[in-house]
Amino acid sequence: MTPKELKARYRNDCLAARDAIPAVDRIEKGLAMVTHGGDTIDIRPGEIVSGFLPIRSEVDIRPLMARLRERGARLCVPIILDRSTIVFRELVAGAPLVPVGFGTSGPGPEAAVLDPDIMLVPLSAFDRSGHRIGYGAGHYDRAIERLQQKGLNPRLIGIAFDCQEVPSVPAEPHDVRLDAILTESGLNFVSEVIG
């Protein structure tokens, strides 16, 4: 099986496992993530944290984002401008949300565009070495590359349920490793040693 075929298989299997989690359990697992990450994720007041508003069966991290805002973070969410470009618009309380692509909503074009210091990254599958499989469009890989070209190096925290872990993601040269992974079981930092 080629790396591309294995990634597709992992993506399909893990998304099916995620879809099978009852909605009530997804809520509870999301709240557990607040317990594990809300006060543990290292942020300084004024740092910019990109989160996301859930689509399909993704974990709802709005409670986690609210906790990080209470601790002084500025929040933003990804907006898909076209098939290849994501920007991060500031998410402020009370601002109206509009459809912004990929089945999600977010702040409109009047919102400030920010460069995140920390990115809470949704994913389809992950492994313990910090490799992730996204949804297949490469939006986050390109967004991270664009930030790095600007001299920025955001900390990347993968957000997933435990059932989305796989033994080993076949990493390709363009793949960017996560710094940590937050699931309902805890916040796990990725080792600097790649096994």
TrEMBL record:
Its cofactor is Mg(2+). The keyword Iron does not apply. GO terms for molecular function: 5-formyltetrahydrofolate cyclo-ligase activity; ATP binding; metal ion binding. The keyword Chloroplast does not apply. GO terms for biological process: folic acid-containing compound biosynthetic process; tetrahydrofolate interconversion. InterPro entries: FTHF_cligase (IPR002698), FTHF_cligase-like_sf (IPR024185), NagB/RpiA_transferase-like (IPR037171). Its EC number is 6.3.3.2. Substrate binds at residues 53, 58. It is an enzyme of class 6 (ligase). ATP binds at residues 7-11, 132-140. It catalyses: (6S)-5-formyl-5,6,7,8-tetrahydrofolate + ATP = (6R)-5,10-methenyltetrahydrofolate + ADP + phosphate. NCBIfam families: MTHFS_bact. This is 5-formyltetrahydrofolate cyclo-ligase. The lineage of its organism: Bacteria, Pseudomonadati, Pseudomonadota, Alphaproteobacteria, Hyphomicrobiales.
